Structures are given as structure tokens and as C-alpha cells.
Fold this sequence. Notes:
The two termini are 41 Å apart. The protein is mainly alpha-helical. It folds into two domains: 2-256, no CATH class; 269-521, no CATH class. 32% of the residues are buried. It contains 19 helices and no strands.
Amino acid sequence: MFKSFILSYKLRNTYRVNSIIYSIKQLPLIGKHLPTSLYSSKGLKVLGNIISTLLEIINIFLGKALYVLLMIVAILGMYEQGNSANNFINIFVLLSIAGGLLNTYMFNPTKDKYYAMILMNMNAKKYTLSNYYYSMIKVIIGFLPFTLIFGIYSGLLPITCILMPFFVIFIKTIYNAYILYYFNKNKKIKNENVPTKGIWILIAIFVILAYGLPALNIPITEGVFYILFSISLIFGTIAFWYVSKFKDYKKAYKSLLTQENVYMVQNQTKGDAIQRTTLNQIELDNKTSSNKKGFAYFHDLFVKRHKKILMKSAKKTAIITFLIFLGIIVGVEINSDMRTRTNELLMTMLPWFVFVMYIINRGTVVTQAMFMNCDHSMLTYRFYKTPKVILALFKERLKTLIKINLIPAIVISIGLPLLLYLTGGTNNYLNYVVLFTSIIAMSIFFSIHYLVMYYLLQPYNVNIEMKSSTYAVVQWITYIVCYMFLQMRLPTMYFGIATIVFCVLYCIIALILVYKYAPKTFKLRI
Length: 526
């Protein structure tokens, strides 16, 4: 089994190293001067291996650190401070159960699994178990420093903090054993990337309980955690035994690693898979029409036929956001301490919403839909790349993207001033206006930002593969900057005004850049 793991790790590492070299070749200015022979360069491969190893280490710790900080520690400030230990354990336990249903590690149809078990015909059981055990070890190592640091700081006993990562792996293994048992009985495998409605409902319940019970002052206590951990230990041990003894991994993965689930080696197959996934969401009604003219008519038809792709996720986000605000409102009405704390946070937590608006922004999804279902074909025509056409469509698309992102943004922009009023209000009524306006400004900013990125750095080739490392770097920088705002607490009035001014200036500059450069940059990648 160890040999299988080493072989699979080398395979995954080779793929990652080649991806790093490819990204270097895509860098502006220097990339086009680098020869293809780089892929055979021993020195560069050593550098790639070092970078790959560093990425693996970062992946072990960074994701877990962000999870604990953003999903737990950042939320604790809204609750009664004297109950932080129980609130911490409550959120961690219930989110771990929800995460166990959503992220199995075992039944995610990835490329490396396809390469290893289908193309290279590696032993499916040895490959699966060795990599699953490695993933579970990473979970323990990644979580342990942060559950200890933040758990002890919140008031938990050290032994509780040590047991928490093990609780996570027991939950995941119990659910994985259930999936294997289900496959054994029904010959159907569950793809973790396509959860059923029942799974989504369970996840929603556990998330609501995770944040709702502390608001009602009835969180899970350390004593209850020990009971839950003991139960998970018993069933988790049985589950580990079942998983290790299961014999039909080959059949299970043949059902899982299909063309529809995995973006295969052939580029065209990948494009076909994506298009098949979205085809059912396109409304091909012959009665679809528009009163507009020119390229506004062309774009309007596109929007009407792709309403499910473009609007569905924004509407879901708006509904979820509304329910979150409703839950907070109920909590502050019941809990006076939470009401006071929430009011204080609303006067200083506006920087956090830069990251929130970044997360709920649909720019990437919408631009990918535009490319996949329109531009990847139309860009093969010369007239479509003329300045007049590009700028005309850009204006129409910008209006559409702003409207889509405003759906959840309006819920937040109304919810924050309302929450401020219900928790005691403020002496300066301009705070209400600034809260509302700054959220709208952030939404418009991200709409323009992602559409401008798409037009200036168009990253896809005809097979819908991302071929621009510059685009990826800008995405990464955007994420880092937005995340840094989570560490800030600034007066709502001053930060809000600064945000509005910045968004206006950025939008003006971005539109000028598109007008000047998009006719040259908006093209298919090779």
C-alpha cells in the first residue's frame, strides 16, 4: 500500500510540476520567450518540486487556519463572551458534521484518480486507502495547531482541543462507509460534487444549528462533546474497518470516474463535459424574443436563454442571506448581550463585507457562461473582435452582471441598516446611508472588476481551458486583498465613504482601460 501511495504521489506531483512550468511559460513579457524544452529541464523540475512541496504544506495548514478563523473565531465575537468555549465547540462540531457530508475526500472524481485507476490501471483499493489515510492525517495535522491555539484561548480544555480533529475524521469515515455500503446494495455511487436535495437539507440544518444554538444560549457543552466523540469513536472505528475491508473499489470508481464527472485528458472531452452539464439549463424556446436592437438584442436573447445559469445562484444566495439576517434578528431580540455586541460590531465591521461581497460575487461564473455559451464560438469570427462590437457588448454585459450581483447585495444593504436600527441604532443617521451605499458600491465594483479582468486578460482557449497565468495571479491577489480586510476594524462612516470613493474611481479607470485595450486583448487563447 505504501508503494501505491508513493507512486500516486509522484504522479500527482509530476502533474503539478508541469502545471507550474506551464504557468511560468504563460507569464507576460517573459513567457513567450521561454522554450518548450523547459519541461525537460532538470533544474526547473527541481524548482517545481520544491514549489509543489511548499504548496502541499501550505495546503495542509492554510485551509484549516482560514476555516477556524473565518467560520468560528470571527463569529464568536457576536455571542456572549462568557460562553465562548461552548460556542466554539458547538460551531466546530456541527460544521464538522455538515462538512463530513459535503467533503468526503474519497468520492471526489479528480483527474489524478482518473489517471491512476483508469488510465494506469493501478490497484484501486490500495490507491484509494493510501490516499484517504494520507488525507485524514493531513486533516489531523492541519487542524491540531489551530484547535489548540484558538480552543484554549476560548476556554476549552487542551484534551478537548486535541480530540476535535479526530472527531472530524471519524465523521468523514462514517459517511464514507455509508456510501460504500449504499453502493454495495444498490450499485450506485454518490458523487460528492453533486449532493442530493436531502444532503443539502441536512447540511442547512446543521449550519443553522451551528450558529443558531449559541444565539439562543443553548450551545453544545464540552460534556456533550465527549459523549458525541465517544459515539463517533465507536462508529468511526467500525467504519474504518468496513472501509479497509471493502473489496469493490474498482467497480465503484468505474461508476464514479465517468466523462461527465471528470474533465479528462482530451481537451475536447473537457469542453464537451462542461457544455453537457449546462445544456439542460439553457432555455431553447423559439418564442424567446426581445424588443431591443443591434448587439443589445443579441445580448438580451443570450440572457433570457441562460437565466438559470446566470440568475439561479444569485437568487439562492439572496435567500440564504435573508435567512441569515432573519436568524440574527431573532437572536438579538432574544439575547440582549448579543444585541449590544452586534451593535458594536456594526459600527466597526464594515471592512469584513469586502470579503463577503467578494465571496458572493458571481463574476467568474457569469463570464465563464458568457465564454462557454457564446464567445468561444463567436471569437472565431473577425467582425466579433472589432472595437465597436466588443465595446457595445461590454456595456450590455456590464449592466447584466451588475443586476445579477445586486440581487444578494440589496438584501445585505437593507439588512445591515435594519440590524443596526434594531440593536439600538446610532446617533449619526448618516451611518445608515453609508452602510447601504457602500455595500451597493462594493457590489458594482466587483461586477466591473471581474468583467474587466475577462476582457483584458481573456483566459480561456476554444476548449474552455484556462490558459492565462496572469488572470490566475490577479484572481489570487484579489482574494488576498479582500481577505486582509477581515483583519480590520474601522469606523463605518470613514471606511464606508472611502470605499464609495475608491469604487467610483476604480470603475472610471477600468472602463477607460477596456475602451483602450480590450479590442487587442479580447481573443481566444492558444
